[in-house]
Amino acid sequence: MVELKLNSAYSPMLFSVDGYQLVVMPMLTNEAQEQAKADREAKQAETPTEPVAEPVADKPKAKRSRAKVKTK
Questions:
Q1: What is the pLDDT of residues 22-35, one digit of tens each?
Q2: Fewer CB within 10 Å: C terminus or N terminus of the chain?
Q3: Do residues 33 and 10 touch, judged by C-beta distance below 8 A?
């Protein structure tokens, strides 16, 4: 009896039995590519894009005049 853990058609598969583990990478097929593309599109549609705020121009700093102090 083997325990099989599978997430999707394009992700690696883990077989484990009696302390042994074997990871198998799937072959690249059209079905796997289509599922990966559909998953990516669903994930992008799921996360709303927030509008990026435009940077506000910094106000120029006022120039300070240096009054000469007279010492006696």
A1: 888 877 778 878 88
A2: C
A3: yes
